[in-house]
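Need tokens for this chain, all 321 residues.
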Amino acid sequence: MTTPTRIRADTVNRPLLKWYNQHARNLPWRMTRDPYSILVSEIMLQQTQVDRVIPVYSRFLIIFPTIQSLAAATPMAVIQAWHGLGYYRRAVRLHKLAQIITNDMQGRIPSSTTELIKLPGVGRYTAAAVACFAFNEQVAAFDVNISRVLHRLLGVRSKSKSLIPSEEFRGIIQGIIPKGSAANWNQALMDVGSRFCKRSSPLCSACPLTKICEHSNNLVEVEAQGSTTGRPKTIETRLPFKGSPRFFRGRIIRLLSGLEPTEPIHIDMLLEGINVDMDDDLKLKQAVFVSLLTAMETEGLIWFYKSTLLASTLTLVRLPS
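Here are the structure tokens for all 321 residues:
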């Protein structure tokens, strides 16, 4: 794989950074170089839209302003502060990470990708993002958006559906990063991916990189050919969220968060509560419900136990304390 000769670093970076300087999104985590705040934002942004993250991010940092305060909190308090984001296992993972950094590393978050990636639960992207945005390490932070933009820009087909870049591709991109401006460069590519270079139906004509983008130029040719063949467009559909396991996991956490600290609820009452306004065909069945609770207990999101009261055995559920 080689980079097209007409794509040079300055050819990409000049229009990209000029556009970003004028149109960058005003996001709270871009206003700080605090490693803890950036780590929190990166964990929250995993699989979650920016608009949903902003209010929870601000609230979370008010409740836990330092990594030490987060480490000292109970799992229940962290899960409750995470309310609104879903994927609650991220909250548990972040809490454990805060405890490791506080107890074993004197509260100092590592400053390099190499050291960050050694922490449990920190992947290659998160390590690169924290190192770049907090410590100005000159490295590409390959999230899905950035990877998609760069693969399309250079006309390189990804070897994986998840757009995980190959080591060869990473090496090529490392040579394109403008010296001293990696943070703005990464953020600019994220914004381009979010606004224009979408997974389906990209807005190529409005993109600041359209004139030099291999994908954009090829797309114009394909569209021109398609207009004469009359081929129908492919319409992508997504599975409904309501009634999915993730939907019910969120309902379970919200219902348990409304209880008093350490207050349990009977398993049957919990099932009734999360099914209360669901259509009959979408209601969670008992067997699936128990399986869901078991998985959530394994992840550290809930406590699921039996209690003997008045000669009856009751199965109770509550948030971890």
